[in-house]
Specification:
Aminoglycoside 3'-phosphotransferase, Chain: A, domain 2; 6-stranded antiparallel beta sheet; 13 helices; binds 2-acetamido-2-deoxy-1-O-phosphono-alpha-D-glucopyranose; 2 domains; binds magnesium ion; Phosphorylase Kinase, domain 1; alpha+beta
């Protein structure tokens, strides 16, 4: 197996026991490798980066190097004053001292440390869990608030630039195959109409950035609940993983992504659309957790756009899933035909729920 051959190239002691598929990522191929010596064992993550999604995978690794050097130094310096043991994955180098391996097909593989004795959940478990998600994201944003975004490259150009995803949807609809998929079900037509009615609103963050109201910073890009590790023993958040999308962006992308994920107890793959809601209690706690770390660096203009991002990011993710469904499932991995359409409907339901609760959400945000 290719993953086993690759795993042996990293600088790890012992002999390979297994390499098994791992996790529930929608993009890359992830494996857990186990190596054993006579007296110990090491587990680590091996991943192949999908070229169809990341045109320049080396940029991910260059960013990860800059980010982890910055954060590990900071975490160690602050460790004695901290209320918990914060962790962040580390790049495991190859035996030749490189940060990644390129295989014969030209694919980039990398190895990173596994955060032990901690779990991540695909769905929010309870308000305490949502609170921890807020804490971990706030802590991450504070930790990178002095890492100039210019030091990072764009691993994923156009990531979270919502108008770009609308253009992708339009392009898919302009093809005969896209039209065929549109005509195939009433649900698809309804989904496209849902987006059409909100086309203008899709510009909101991009326009604020272009006006200079909002500024680029170092962002995580994908802080969904499944990427937040919670300590097995204490239940407290201790680590954010999946650093592939760390790049210059708006903190709003992260806030909207964390809230769309942690305030929807039914999850991204909800079995019943009717069960998808934006839960205000969960939102209140996640926001409290976030603020406890992030109060210092959010400007007034940032605050003014918080509701916008809470609404926009689920809408945007729905558009991304829908555009991929119309294009024939080329970006996100799917587990069954129509999976991307289904995922889109869940996010649209969530965006609708946010629209209904706008006044209450703004109240939690401290707006009048
Ligand atoms: C993808 O592969 P994964 O699960 O880390 C996607 C995110 C979406 C997420 C939805 C590079 O993340 O943007 O929010 O699916 N990552 C990329 O689950 O597009
Ligand atoms: Mg990701």
């Amino acid at each position: 197996m290719r993953a086993a051959l690759i795993a042996r190239q990293f600088d790890v002691q012992g002999r390979l026991v297994t390499v098994e598929p791992y996790g529930s990522g929608n993009v890359n191929d992830t494996y857990l490798a186990i190596f054993r010596t006579t007296f110990s064992e090491q587990r680590f993550i091996v991943q192949r980066i999908r070229k169809a999604v990341f045109p320049q995978p080396e940029v991910i690794m260059q960013n990860m190097r800059v980010l982890t050097d910055h954060c590990h130094a900071k975490l160690e310096a602050e460790a004695d004053r901290s209320d918990r043991i914060w962790q962040l994955p580390k790049i495991i180098q190859t035996k030749a001292g490189e940060d990644w391996v390129t295989d014969a097909q030209g694919d980039l593989w990398r190895a990173i440390s596994q955060i032990a004795s901690a779990n991540a959940f695909d769905r929010v478990q309870n308000p305490e869990h949502a609170y921890e998600v807020g804490i971990v994201l706030g802590h991450f944003h504070r930790m990178v608030s002095d890492l100039p975004p210019e030091r990072l490259g764009y691993a994923l150009p156009g990531f979270h630039v919502t108008p770009g995803y609308l253009a992708k949807m339009d392009a898919a609809l302009a093809t005969p195959e896209g039209q065929e998929r549109l005509e195939a079900s009433l649900e698809t037509k309804r989904a496209v109409r849902f987006v059409e009615a909100r086309r203008e609103r899709c510009q909101v963050l991009q326009q604020a950035l272009e006006r200079g109201d909002l500024t680029l910073r170092t962002t995580h890009g994908d802080p969904k609940v499944g990427n937040i590790m919670v300590d097995e023993a204490t239940g407290r958040g201790t680590c954010i993983v999946d650093l592939d999308t760390v790049q210059p962006g708006l903190v709003h992308y992260d806030i909207g992504d964390a809230t769309r994920s942690a305030c929807n107890p039914a999850g991204e793959d909800a079995a019943e659309l009717a069960s998808v809601i934006f839960d205000l209690d969960l939102f209140t706690t996640i926001y409290r957790g976030y603020q406890s770390h992030a109060q210092d660096f959010l400007s007034q203009a940032d605050h003014r756009h918080l509701f916008d991002c809470i609404h926009l990011i689920p809408l945007e993710l729905g558009i991304r899933f829908l555009a991929d469904h119309l294009a024939g499932d080329v970006y996100f991995k799917v587990r069954y035909p129509g999976h991307n359409l289904r995922r889109a409907l869940v996010q649209f339901k969530l965006a609708e729920s946010i629209e209904t609760r706008e006044a209450a959400i703004r109240k939690v945000l401290g707006e009048r």
